[in-house]
UniProtKB/TrEMBL annotation:
Keywords noted in UniProt: Signal
Signal peptide start and end residues: 1-22
Pfam families the record matches: Esterase
The protein, known as: Putative esterase
Region described as Disordered: 28-47
GO molecular function: acyltransferase activity, transferring groups other than amino-acyl groups
Lineage: Bacteria, Pseudomonadati, Bacteroidota, Cytophagia, Cytophagales
Length: 373
């Protein structure tokens, strides 16, 4: 079964950075473009419109060709055209999926970031980012509600002879409620990303803040650390060995978190989830170490079968999700089999999205209320 999961994830990752889709029909492009919310301060481009089209402006007067990896137009993405002033312009051929997308520029064969956009770690490098406003963006919007804290921690890792980094989200009121202890979700990024992804691209902290403020969930801590996945070249998932990271997470990071934060340090109050390759890590570690976690989450990260789970594993909930443009039937089939075997399993399909952060933002939003019940 593990080989099948690796194969499935390899296929998924081939599409991890294909972030657009064609719109049927011949709807005219509306000229209501506005700067993307992911732009550098004071930069007007790139821009997006109400239909989801993206428009780019690049100053490169000496360049011969400029392409944007984002959008339609084949492997080259969106091809830009130079005007008489040496400025390159272009608009995607169709609307983009809602949510966050990585992209970069290819200028005369070289790879560059857009100087107008903020950068986010993805594709094993800092990439430009753009946000296509979503119809449901309120659940991760920055609002005037009590906010938690995301802090960097450095923890010793004897197994790797190094000091490693994690980011820890503590909910609103953590500092004031000096005796309250909290459950913990260990939340993993995907291949090509790092421990900054869930806060920067995923807005996990804002999702939590808003849900807590609305009374939708009880507060819990989230821990995000580097999954050691980027040492494996793209397409080489079969060569990834889970044991080194499993040791870092279970034997080094978890004890550090339990010693330095007010956690409920037992299996019943501990969850693990991850997106894409982070889901593969979650799948392996939860099966290898069933005494550590009671709640499992695979977000576009494969599936569980009942046969894989030990009878005495004590699983309280399994959450499996993906985008509607991925493989929703496989997710639903897996969850149905888990339910028939007596497990509390939940499936979720993000409508209109693929292997991208809007799928995973929505998945966290759906999963969080199910944890620690």
């Amino acid at each position: 079964m593990m080989k099948k999961n690796y194969l499935f994830l390899s296929v998924l990752l081939l599409f991890a950075f294909s972030n657009s889709h064609a719109q049927s029909g011949s709807e005219a492009i509306k000229e209501d473009f506005k700067p993307s919310s992911k732009n550098q301060p004071g930069k007007d481009y790139p821009q997006v419109n109400s239909q989801g089209y993206a428009r780019f402006r690049i100053e490169a007067p000496e360049a011969e060709t400029v392409h944007v990896s984002l959008g339609l137009g084949g492997r080259g993405g969106t091809k830009l055209t130079k005007d008489s002033d040496g400025v390159w312009w272009g608009t995607t051929e169709g609307p983009m999926d809602e949510g966050f997308h990585y992209y970069h520029l290819t200028i005369d064969g070289g790879t560059f970031n857009d100087p107008g956009a903020l950068n986010y770690y993805g594709s094993t490098r800092w990439e430009s980012g753009i946000e296509i406003p979503a119809h449901d963006q309120e659940f991760y919007a920055l609002k005037n509600v009590p906010h938690g804290n995301v802090q960097q921690v450095l923890f010793p890792s004897p197994s790797t002879s190094s000091v490693k980094r994690a980011f820890v989200y503590t909910p609103p009121g953590y500092a004031e409620n000096s005796t309250t202890r909290y459950p913990v979700l260990y939340l993993q990024h995907g291949w090509g990303e790092d421990e900054t992804a869930w806060s920067n691209q995923g807005h996990a902290n804002l999702i939590m803040d808003n849900m807590i403020a609305n009374g939708e969930i009880d507060p819990f801590i989230i821990v995000m650390t580097y999954g050691m996945t980027n040492e494996i070249k793209f397409g080489g998932l079969r060569d990834f060995k889970i044991e080194p990271f499993q040791t870092v997470l279970v034997d080094e990071l978890i004890p550090f978190i339990d010693s330095n934060f007010r956690t409920l340090s037992n299996k019943d109050n501990r969850a693990m989830a991850g997106l894409s390759m982070g889901g593969m890590e979650t799948h392996s570690i939860t099966l290898n170490r069933p005494e550590v976690f009671s709640y499992y989450g695979l977000l576009s990260g494969g599936v569980y079968s009942p046969e894989e789970i030990k009878e005495d594993a004590g699983v309280k909930m399994i959450f499996i999700s993906c985008g509607s443009k991925e493989n929703p039937d496989r997710v639903k089939t897996s969850v149905n089999a888990l339910k028939e075997a007596g497990y509390h399993a939940v499936s979720y399909v993000s409508e209109g999205t693929a292997h991208e952060f809007q799928t995973w933002r929505r998945s966290l939003h759906e999963m969080a209320p199910l944890l620690f019940k």
